[in-house]
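User: Hey, quick favor. My workstation is busy. Could you predict this chain's structure for me?
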Amino acid sequence: MAKTLKYDVVIVGLGPAGSSLAYFLKDSGLKVAGIDLVDWDGLWGKPCGDAIGEHHFDETGLPKPEGEAMRNRVVGIDVYSPREDVKLRVKGYGYIIDRNAYGRGLVKAAMDKGVDVWLKTFVKRPLIEDGRLIGVEARGPNGEDLVFRGKVTVDATGTSSVIRRRLPREWPVNEKLKPTDANIAYRKIVDLDHEIEDYQYIRIYVNMSIAPGGYWWFFPEGPTSVNVGLGVQGGRGYPSPKQIFEEKLANRPELKGIVRVKADAGAMVPTRRPANTLAWDGFIGIGDNGFTVNPVHGGGMGYAMVAAKYASQAIVEAFEAGDFSRYGPLWKTNTLYMRSIGARQAALDIFRIYLQTLTDEEIEWGLKNGVVKADDAYVISSEGELKANLSVLDTAKVLARMLKRPSMLLQLRTVGNYMKKAKNLYLSYPESPDKLGEWVSSVEELYKEFKGKLGIDW
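Assistant: No problem, here it is.
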C-alpha cells in the first residue's frame, strides 16, 4: 500500500528550474515538495558549459554565485570564424559556476524555510484522476511506494520530461521534442599546466566541420582550468560529439598540457523556441522540459530561472484564487514568459535554423566582410532581432560586398523578416487557452513557410 503525502505544490526535478522554483516559493506559505532522483552531491548534475549571464540574477533576484559556487568571473565572449581568421569580441558580464555547489545552495535555502526535499526518489508516472493531474506516483529512497498529491505539479525534469510526455495525448501540453530541434553535447573539464590567455573571456568556435549544426566551446573556469566541449545537431546522422571531440579537439593547442581530467559527460540540449504551452490544468513545465532555452547557443540555466520566477508568481495567484485550471492564474506562466523572453527565443529559433543551413565558407565570408559584427551579435542575442544587420546591409559599402553573394543577401532579408514575424506571434500569445490551437497553427505555418523559402526539409 502506497503512502500518500499531501502538498500544495509538487516539484519534480531539482535542477536549475525546479530548485529556483522551490527557492521562490520558500516564503509563500505553501506546502512544497521537491523531488529528485539524485543524491545531494548530484544536484544540478547535467553536463553543460556552466556559463551564465549576470543579467539573469539581476532579473530574477536569485543570489549571485560566490565562494565555491563561482569558478570564474566572465567579462565577454570571443566568437571565432571557421578558419579562426575573424574574432568577434562581445562584451558582457557573467560567471562560470560550479553547478552542483550553486544548486545545493538554492535547495538548502528552500529547505531552511520548510520546503520538503525528497532525494534519491524515483518518479514513476503522473497521477490522473477524473481527467485531472493530481500528483505523481514515486518510489522512495528506501524502495517504498509513495504518492505525492498536490494542487499543482511541476515538471522540471529536463529533456527526460518524466511528467509531460506521460500526460494524455490530447492535452496540448504533451509536446515532443524533435531530434533536429536539439543538440547532442559532450564536454570535458580539465586542469592545464599553464595559464590560459584572456581567461576571463569565454570562447565560441563556429565550425561546421567540427560541430555540424552547433559550435564548440572553450570556457575557462579560472587561470588553469577549462570546460571544453561541443554540440552537434540531432536527427541529421552526424557522428557522436564524443567521437568528434577525440578526433578533432583533443589535440588542439589549447588542450596541450592537460594535468587532470576532472569530469567528462554528455547530454541532450533543446535548441528551439519555447513549448507551445508551459501550463495546463494543475500542471506547469519549465526549464529544458519546456524548451525555455536560447536556441542559438543552447544556454538554459538563466532562462530556467526566469521561467521559474514567472511560474512562482502564477502559482501563488492560483492559490489566492483557488483556481488551478488552465483558465486560471496558472496560464500567466505562459503570457508572462512568452510575451517577453519567449518572443525573443522564437526569433532566435528562426536565426538558428538559418545558421544550420550555412557552410563554413559562407560563415567565414560573412564574418570577414562585416555582415555580422560584434554589436550585431549582441543585438541578435539580447533582442532576438536582425535589425542591426539589416540596417548595415543598406549601407553602400556592405551592400557592394553583399552583391557578390546575392543569394546570401536575399536570405538575410528573408531571415530578418521571419524573425520579426515569429517575435510578433509570441508577443500576441493568447490570453486564454481557448485560442491556443489557432495560435499554434499560425506558428507552425510560419515555420513551414520559412523552411520552404530556404529549401529546408528537416
